[in-house]
Amino acid sequence: MSKPVAALVQALSRVLLGKEGQIKLALACLLAKGHLLVEDLPGMGKTTLAHALARVLGLEYQRIQFTSDLLPADILGTSIFNQNSSEFEFRPGPVFTQVLLADEINRATPKTQSALLEAMEERQITIDGHSHPLPSPFFVIATQNPTTQMGTYPLPESQLDRFLMRISLGYPDPAVERKLLQGFNPREDMSSLPRATDAAGLAQLQQQVSAVFVSDALLDYVQRILAFSRQTNQFSIGLSPRAGMALVQCARAYALVNGREHVIPEDVQAILPAVAEHRLAGARDITGHEGQRLVDRVLKQVDVIAGR
Length: 308
Fold this sequence. Notes:
The protein is α/β, with parallel strands linked by helices and 308 residues long. It is built from 14 helices and 11 strands. Helix 1 crosses helix 2, helix 10 crosses helix 12 (241-257) and helix 11 (216-231) packs across helix 12. It starts with a helix and ends in a 7-residue tail after the last helix.
């Protein structure tokens, strides 16, 4: 693990106790220039992860609480008439930041959810026919509650696909939970988190991702995964070419996070659940949450070595 990445993992581990695996996945998503969706119950540390990432990276941070009455203009901004100049002036919304926390994104209506699509894909927004570029880097961390909870609107497949990864933090282990019960408050420790890098340092790490070597044998393995998801009758939605590119890019980033200059099959297997679960659907899946079982099937049935 390189010194900058090790410093990032160490700093984040101070407030996200016992979650090194999820921290590495979140960093890999960021280094791969993607956006992250965190699905979990309330109170699991989703907001803490977003705030801590922004702090250790030294990036601008904004949080939007998504509710059923939130409007697209509340996110993107709006044009206001200036009586002195007799012209409309654009007032930017909170989306104009480097790290945006879209908190409980699936509590907003589909119209408001879709307001983020152009921003996430094109790194710009269009208001009244005028395009406005977003800051660089631009990283969206969205959280969502399980769709079984009241007041949620499921994200459509087109919007789910904008997220490079979907992860879950899960319950803490007993030792960590005991520390929380004894009075440790991650948010109180947030102000003392050291800055491990800055925007320029992050840009250098992101450039290094593309230099991580991927062998032809590794690409063959990824293609067998893609083909398996498309050809079997167990899947109603297979992995798209964009999902395949996401797998390779995330595997590169994950290898870099773990201090390697080349990708190994274990990198693909480690990031496959986060990259593929929200993109897969089973033939009889009506909940959109059968992805974990399908990814397990892929990992068991697709051989690392062809013809084995």
